[in-house]
Amino acid sequence: MVNINADRYRQIEQNLQQFQSEFESVLALHNKEKLGVKIIAVTKGFPASDIEILAELGISEIGESKDQEIKNKLPTINKLNINLHFIGQLQRNKAKSVASYSEVIHSIDRKSLIDEIVKVAAVNKNLAILLQVDLAKTLDTKRGGAEPSDLLHLAEYAVQSGLDLKGLMTVAPFGDNAEDAFVRFVEISEELAHRYPQANWRSIGMSADWQIAIKNGATHLRIGSALLGNRA
Which of 63, 107, 102, 111 is nearest to 89 (CA)? Predict the structure, then answer.
């Protein structure tokens, strides 16, 4: 590593150790296997030097959500042995760019994004996608995603388009009970996996609700502030 602040390194190291200790306790509580749940360190809004620290500490999955910010960090990301997950709401005019460098796009919620991504999927052969589910009950609590009733049609379109569909992602709606939201998500996820057995990833859980997510079978946790602190 070059020009890494020693204090920042120790801070992230301590945060990671504390999180991993609690993570293992929660896994044991719910009889979950550690290897079955991946931690995605959400580095959006943090400098590339933090990504270097995370990689040094053994984190191999990072999450970002803004195309231009990612492009600024790509020189660092490309020299490290890490996988880049795009977890933000995706605009159609950014879809091809995001698909060119991501390992996984978590936020596919309409056919027009699939149409754009297909144009570069042949070049980025490692690209996988998740469909984002909207579990909001009202307009005020929406955080992106497709309506549950549209998911099977969207999944069929993605698979027929030749994309590697791995499963579903959601964000617990503002003001809603995360437990209730994740229980609904599990039902939807099981329906999708029944039709497409390979689509069994569940990208749920962030710093505020990851324990509930593990209880409900999360395979990927998107953890930001618990590892890196609050953004400026």
Answer: 107
0.70 exceeded by the pTM? yes
Residue holding tokens 């503002």?
174
Which residues, other chains included, contact 181 with Cβ-Cβ below 8 Å and sequence gap of 6+?
Answer: 135, 170, 172, 173
Q: Which domain holds residue 111?
A: 6-228
Give residue-wise pLDDT tens across range 118-163: 999 889 989 999 999 999 865 544 568 999 999 999 999 999 999 9
For the chain, the domain total comes to 1
Q: Is residue 129 part of a domain?
A: yes
CA distance 129 to 96: 13
Could you tell me which residues are beta bridge partners of residue 213?
Answer: none
**Torsion, Cα of 100, 85, 197, 218 (10° steps):** -170
Q: What is the CATH number of the domain that holds 39?
A: 3.20.20.10
Tens-place pLDDT, residues 46-84: 999 999 999 999 999 999 999 999 999 999 999 999 999
